[in-house]
Amino acid sequence: MTYLLYTAAALAEIAGCFSVWAWWRLEKSPLWLLPGFASLLVFAWLLALIGIGAAGRAYAAYAGIYIAASLAWLWLVEGVRPDRWDLAGAALCMAGASIILLAPRGA
Fold first, then answer.
1. What are phi and psi of 50, to 5 degrees?
2. Beta carbons of 60 and 34 less than 8 angstroms apart
3. Considering the entire predicted model, what is its pTM?
4. Which residue, 33, 39, 67, 100, could crosslink 16 as a Cys pair with Cβ 3.0–4.6 Å?
5. Half-sphere exposure in the Cβ direction for 105 (13 Å, CA)
6. How far is CA 74 from CA 9, 10, 80, 82, 89, in A?
7. What is the DSSP annotation of 30-72?
8. 34-58 in b/e burial notation, b at 16+ Cβ within 10 A?
9. CB-side exposure of 19: number of CA atoms within 13 Å?
10. Distance between CA atoms of 58 and 45, rounded to whole angstroms?
11. How confident is residue 54, by pLDDT bands cut at 50, 70 and 90?
């Protein structure tokens, strides 16, 4: 369930940031900012639902999943296929995120 929450949070963050990118860099209407800001609020809410006791640890693990989700966005939304270096980097980040999430920790 944690990976699902992280993935949903990543998609919400990417969508929110992309709305600013679209307004600023692609010269879209400022109305693009409204759903973007809402998406960023959803992102923060979803990340706060993660069941890890320390915020810093939750954010560190999230970073690896965010990188993989960003590459999926690159491919699916922007139409640019990630290359082998992108995929290798994302795999390393996902491994790191999994170590942080799945490490046995004493109470």
1. -60, 135
2. no
3. 0.79
4. 39
5. 10
6. 16, 13, 6, 7, 14
7. GGGHHHHHHHHHHHHHHHHT---S-HHHHHHHHHHHHHHHHHH
8. eebeebbebbeebbeebebeeeeeb
9. 17
10. 13
11. confident
DSSP 26: S
Question: Cα dihedral angle (58, 64, 66, 70), rounded to 10 degrees?
Answer: 180
Look up residue 102 and give its two tokens: 């799945």
How far apart are the C-alpha atoms of 69 and 47, rounded to whole Å? 15
Find the helix or strand (DSSP H, E) in which 8 lies: helix 2-25
Contact 68, 9 (CB under 8 A): no
Rounded Cα–Cα distance for residues 3 and 39 (Å):
19
Question: Is residue 52 very low, low, confident or very high in pLDDT (cuts 50, 70, 90)?
Answer: confident
